[in-house]
User: What shape does this take?
Amino acid sequence: MAASSRLIAMLRSARAVAVLTGAGVSAESGVPTFRGENGLWRKFRPEELANFEAFIRNPQLVWEWYKERKRVIQRIQPNPGHIALAELEKLFPDFSITTQNIDNLHRRAGSKKVFELHGNIERNYCVQCRADVSNEKVLQTDDVPRCEKCGGLIRPDVVWFGELLPSDEWESAETAARHADVYFSIGTSAIVYPAASLPLIAKRAGAFLVEINPEETALTPGADEFIEGNSGAVLPQIVEALKTK
Ligand code: BJW
Ligand code: ZN
Assistant: This one.
């Protein structure tokens, strides 16, 4: 499905545009989503694996899974959806991406203003002394990585269930939602909070809310426009329409 002419007209006069992205935006790069048919966590419920207690109980299992994902993410490239979002940034005076993704693909595609709500898989730190540890070091060892300074457990710098989101990133994301003329929710099931509240915050503050997803979500009934489709197809069409006089 294509964007409506109403949306394109609205974007032409918009000053502030903000976007929330989820795993679906990276699906076409080859990063599996969390939930659904081909969900990453078909065998485990995300709530059971992505939490600190699970890590302490079985760091070997959690690390095996993160090392595998680190290797996948190093191999893959941003897709046309990421690239279109980087293009869109150049077309508006105020444009930002708030992402739940930890794969760094928005920055690799050239986007500058990116708020990472759930951390970044390319960073790691010691749970005991908070020292940063490089990905290279972590990937060198087959065992659970340990801190060279204090012997503490190293963990990926991502946000697990029950953990607070980085406050500066959250504040920037919330401000962007409150000030957006048009707000996009793209490739997210919109079930994980507080990220899922951002489109609602934007709409309540007066934004025109657009959702792009091949499937309907809990957000769909509240969206002003639902564009059914893959972000890698829909977003380049929007850029193209905006560039055409
Ligand atoms: C395409 C596509 C294509 C496919 N194009 N689209 C009860 C009620 C409300 C809240 C809670 C509650 N109980 C607990 C909570 C809070 C909890 C929460 O929200 N739980 C819900 C499950 C109910 N939240 C938290 O705990 C958060 N912290 C917090 O609230 O702090 C306060 C607090 C402190 C102390 C105690 C309690 C609260 C933290 C959440 C952290 C989430 N972390 C993860 C893991 C990150 C690290 C990692 O990646 O390993 O973040 S979980 C996982 O889900 C990951 C994702 O960012 C996140 C969201 O998933 P996303 O991106 O939406 O992916 P999917 O797979 O769900 O959806 C993909 C979509 O793409 C689908 O719709 C497809 O159709 C679509 N798609 N192909 C476009 N080509
Ligand atoms: Zn340490």
